[in-house]
Amino acid sequence: MSEEYVTLPAEQPAQGGTPSADESAAIMTDKIRKMERFSYFRFGDGYLECVGGKMGQTCDHEVYTGALATNLQEAWLSINRQPEDLFLGDWMSASFDSQSEKNRYADQWEALKRTASPARWLHFEALLFMRESAELAKFYEAVRADKRRKLFMGPIGNRPAAAWLGAEFLNVPMVNLHDHIFQIAHLLANELSYDVLLFGAGMAGNIAVAIAREKHPQRTYINLGSALDPLFRGRSRQQQLSRDRAWQLVGGRWR
């Protein structure tokens, strides 16, 4: 990492006792360096809207349906039946454009949190390139250095990200992923060989990963979401770093 490229703004602590984004990244970095298993899942407003019966779709064009809602609830229950080494992203620690947006589903989120048993909560944006952070860079350095068998599951635009992290790549659809989710779950649970699964496959991806984790709890599962978009696909959210700043953060190694 090239420290001269990095400026570190003062990080705001998360609310409710959840570790800050940097503290959360450091916890996971330590687990990776020690090659200890863990799982990091994230469920947010899309989950709350879908299981709450709202009509709509995610930013990845996953349309809310009753079947998707049922399977998402089953995924939530599945991962919480195996709480060993389970970390969950606390959605209330995420960035919100306004207080009203933050309050919109606060009650539903707190109700969902009460059904988690007994997970350790980490920052929702711990692994996202939305801040210039040495701890964030260290996390990705640790993943790249990890010699275990790694698999990256995501849409085709993430293939270069998989190569950068030293992982094999499993291409999944960007749109209507739920239509294919049980075929993907079968691959993850029964056919593909890996020790660490990195996934950024939209909300429905949690369903397939939960099924795989139920069969192989000794593996590591890390939800990256759209974390690597600034590096390889360009900004997909306004808060993300520019491509140049993101690459400078991890040492400027690109192309």
Uncertain segments:
1-14
Query: What is the helix tally?
Result: 11
* Termini separation: 16 Å
How would you describe the oligomerization state of the chains in this entry? single chain
Helices and strands: which structural class? alpha/beta
User: Taking strands numbered 1, 2, ... along the chain, how are they ordered across the largest sheet?
Assistant: 3-2-1-7-6-4-5
Strand portion: 5-15%
Q: Summarize the biggest pleated sheet.
A: 7 strands, parallel
- How many individual β-strands? 7
Average of pLDDT: 90
Percent of residues in helices comes to 25-40%
Count of structural domains: 1
Helix-strand sequence: HEHHEHHEHEHEHEHEHH
What is the alpha-carbon Rg in Å? 17 Å
Q: What is the global morphology?
A: globular
Task: Please provide a written account of the structure.
The protein has helices at residues 21-33, 45-51, 66-81, 99-103, 106-113, 134-145, 159-164, 181-191, 205-215, 229-232, 243-249, and strands at residues 39-42, 86-90, 120-123, 150-154, 168-171, 196-199, 220-223. The chain is α/β, with parallel strands linked by helices and 255 residues long. It has one domain. A seven-stranded parallel beta sheet has the order 3-2-1-7-6-4-5, with helices on both faces. The chain is globular and about 45 Å long. Residues 1-14 have low confidence and may be disordered.
